[in-house]
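How a chain folds remains the central question behind the approach discussed here. For one protein, we set the task of working out the structure tokens from the amino acid sequence alone. The sequence in question and its structure tokens are set out directly beneath this paragraph.

_____
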Amino acid sequence: MSYRIEKDSLGDVQVPADVYWGSQAERSRNLFQISGLTEHPKMIDAFVMLKKACASANTSLGLLDEKVGNAIIQAADEVLAGKYRDQFPVDVFHMGAGTSFNMNTNEVLANIAEELLGGKKGEYKLVNPNNDVNYGQSTNDTFPTAMRIFSRLMLKDLCSAVDELENALREKGNEFNHILKSARTHLQDAVPIRLGQEFTAYANAMKKCKKWMHFAEDELQELGIGGSAAGTGMNTHPKYRALVVKELSEYLNISFRNADDLCESMQSQFPMSALASAIRMLCLELTRISNDLRLMSSGPLTGLAEITLPAVQPGSSIMPGKVNPSMAENLNLVLFQALGQCQSIDYCVQAGQLELNVMMPSMVFSGGFAMQILTNTLHTFTKNCVQGIVADEVRCARYAQTSPSLATALNTYIGYQEASRVVKKSLKEGMSIPEIVLDEKLMDEATLNQILDPIKLTEPGIPGK
């Protein structure tokens, strides 16, 4: 391999001759061989979009030479079109605040622009990574800005996946709305409920989760670009930050806005806390729902077996014919991983010191990774599990009809104590509640049937009245 020699403030650096990154990315590549993971493609997009918007603003304000500014913009467009994607080698866990990745982006865009203007990469005679691409910027305002753009884009995809799941659960709620079953509290038999009511409640839980996700979206739309090193805006034009945010909003069709207080926007990463909170609440609700589906599908002979989840692959390497709730298990695996990433974001957010939080590289990885795996698993869970759920209507009805808790509907007519006696006899002699009521002539069959009407049993009111 041939090399070129680049210089930075620490001295000479050998950089592979054919690459578009420069000395600082090369130093980082050799120093931080940590995870083997590089930045998410959408994080690259977010950073390059930001650099493009900054170059456009600085050029329009006369702060960048027009040829240089246009070359940087063209270089950014080429990266956004999918070229040079192998030129971002910096590990996701690199130096604090994200300086390595900021400089990686500056160097790549500078070298592409250098060649566009007839120069050679690594010389930086026509376009300089610091003086031109990074003009009026600091890692301290560009990285958090790009992090929020990236997180906002990823959250949009996650919201779409939650929409799909909510719709699928609601459709199952409608499909199963006529099916009577036994509710369970404390994992014990309880009063009747309709299977459709359970699934509609799951859908409504997803709807509530989206409210918090939309709150996080709004927080992420506040950008602190223009704060430069410490939130004071040193070396920036007064009109610069508004122009950058305007261009980003138009390019992405998202209502980004300038931070009211640039110092606060760099000291605090509250939007990332809001993101972690929204993801956490979604994960907790989904864990509960996934566990319910696994319980209701347990069996097929010794469990509840009220529903059947689609069989997606053999469930055992030793037990022939065994089928597991694999999609629900996969969802749980991902949910627990995402919850761990939320914990990581929490620790990072509280670790800010004075004018900067240097833990942003970990924040952006944790948030992006959590949203990526959640988005992917929700798509496949909705398609390969929820949409194919089948109810065992006969079994559900038998549970409802034989459950001792059915006697709750008799309280108004025969009293709690008498109803308790009927339950005890039912459990002791193996008779159903209706059989005992009719056998002891506690009420006539017509009245009993009216009381045990499935709809009246599962809606507000007194059954039979």
User: Anything to note?
Assistant: The first strand starts at residue 3 and ends at 8. The CA atoms of residues 197 and 258 lie 44 Å apart. Strands lie at 3-8, 11-16, 180-185, 188-194, 222-223, 257-258, 307-308, 390-391.
